[in-house]
Specification:
The protein is of the alpha+beta class. It contains 14 helices and 26 strands. Pfam families: GARS_A, GARS_C, GARS_N.
Amino acid sequence: MKLLIIGGGGREHSLAWRLSKSKKVKKIYAAPGNPGIAQIATCVSILASDIPGLARFAEEKKIDLTVVGPEAPLALGIVDEFTKRGLKIFGPNKNASRIEADKSFAREFMQRFGIPAPKFQVYETVSEAHKYTKTINKFPVVVKASGLAGGKGVFIVNTKNEYEKTIDEILVQHRLGEAGKRIVVEEFLTGQEASIFVLTDGIAISYLPSSQDHKRLYDRNRGPNTGGMGAYAPYPTNRRVSNIIEKVIIQPTILSLKDYGVHYKGVLYAGIIITSLGPKVLEFNCRFGDPEAQAILPLIDGDFLTPLLAVADGKLSEVQIKTKNLWSICVVLASAGYPQDYRIGEEIEFKSKLSTKTLLFHAGTKNEDSKLLTASGRVLNVVTMHENLKIAKQRAYDEIKKIHFKGMYYRKDIGNSGMKKMKRKRRK
């Protein structure tokens, strides 16, 4: 079979790597890809936003399955266009992608169908947004751009002044562009966060390993939100919490979407916070997480192409997904200044060879004059696995010592919360 992977980051590199293991796969293309993906696939210079160009390419190359990595092409309707042309594709259509692309729609959907979530308000103008401080006026509070902002549209504000500054930047200065035409102001919740991933063909549901993303820039969850600084998998939930997530959140969401006239096919990613009152949904996403995909895909045992095809064909109930009894750690190596202003074009050097057991996924790199250079805020993903989470973490950070580029920054506490959770379990 011939595959086309849409996107060019670490998530797409991990998808290409996982799918390349399938005996059914003869050829993989990636658009636009990156230097890491180029080691296992043929990269083509078509942007992920060029829906007609991607569809023409898929037709010309007789692609058997297209797998979409980022959310933007899904929100633009790539699945609708491919389906119209009779091209097989993995991912939700434009209507279904609203679960991520329009946060106000998602919150109203959850409220209507009783999916546990924070209390919220939706505002379109500054004068409307000021109503919050005149009525509820409770801090901290979470302010979100309603549209897609590349993981940079969420702000935790602690004071009235911060709130007013944030809504001015979004609604007046338009710093987030179209993504910030509306904002969602949400109740701030405390608890451990978990990323839950399921494949669904709109009826059947198959669970992938859970994960915990580390959104904040600095250790101990301090600093601004980013696209993600690392992840570990699986997230160690107890049976009671797992049952609530399955029976109160995931299953009702899939069924309610169907009742709402939305036939959801693809991967559904639920960002959950486990509060003292139980799990609640912080957000739904319509694609694999980044960097969670880099942590969970290595834990899939067997051919991962089969379930993706089953989703596209509406036959997921006929497939079983097996996972390895291992821990996985993914650490993001970022450029200095990320997620704000950061430099690119720094040479990436390897002081010594990485272990054959280590996976290195390229997130933002480019080749120039026979050198590998940084090309984005998030540059590389270092992934290691082991039966013991502590050892998996130690191996990841040992491997990072072999890599260098000017201004390289990474969190040093990825996986710590998982180890603390496991210690508490053992004490009980």
